[in-house]
Specification:
Ribosomal Protein L4, Chain: A, 33% helix
Length: 206
């Protein structure tokens, strides 16, 4: 069982915590991580792009000029793709880019990135994280104490004071345990998690 240091909001070490090998100490599966990232990015795509084909462009019903005898190339419609204002040959149409991964692969990917954060010493466990009121200045002070530049902060529940205090700080994102994903964990340099959130992660993903 791996153990990591536990810090308080002042950045001082106040103890250690043991991490479950089944979640924070598995063999990293790069393929699972890769597929989870592809799925996340694909699911962010709206797929709303659209253009008109020659059949959908208004007008063009009359033949521009007679078939033969003009010396010009034959034309059947002013809405053909080669004409200005004509249709698009293979016009993009709205489509669904979303992907699905089976539950086992998604869990494996999440456990793999959590393990990688431990191995790379980019995981910080906080004894607790709480604010009496919404104060961005106080949240920034906590981040400075922990020397965070680009971090994902995971808390157990939905603490409004923490979420709103961190919202305006560049490169700092907060998330609840049930909303963490592989992409965000990889995107941010440091994975910060409270002691309560560690327990919940180990319960949910055991």
């Amino acid at each position: 069982m791996a153990s990591v240091s536990v810090f308080n909001m002042s950045g001082e070490q106040v103890g250690e915590i043991g991490l479950s090998d089944g979640i924070f100490g598995i063999e990293v599966n790069e393929h699972a991580v890769h597929m989870a990232v592809i799925q996340y990015l694909a699911n962010q795509r709206q797929g709303t792009k659209s253009a008109k084909t020659r059949a959908e462009v208004r007008g063009g019903g009359k033949k521009p000029w007679r078939q033969k005898g003009t010396g010009r190339a034959r034309q059947g419609s002013t809405r053909s793709p080669q004409w200005t204002g004509g249709g698009v040959v293979f016009a993009p149409k709205p489509r669904d880019f979303s992907m699905r991964l089976n539950k086992k692969l998604k869990r494996l990917a999440l456990k793999s990135v959590l393990t990688s954060r431990v191995l790379e010493k980019k995981l910080i466990v906080l004894d607790e994280l709480s604010l009496a009121e919404i104060r961005t200045k106080e949240m920034k002070k906590i981040c400075d104490n922990l020397k965070l530049t680009k971090a994902l902060i995971v808390i157990k529940g939905s603490d409004r004071n923490i979420i709103l205090s961190a919202r305006n700080i560049p490169n700092i994102k907060t998330a609840a345990v049930n909303t963490i994903n592989v992409y965000d964990i990889l995107k941010y340099e440091t994975f910060v998690v409270t002691r309560d959130a560690v327990s919940q992660i180990q319960e949910v993903y055991a």
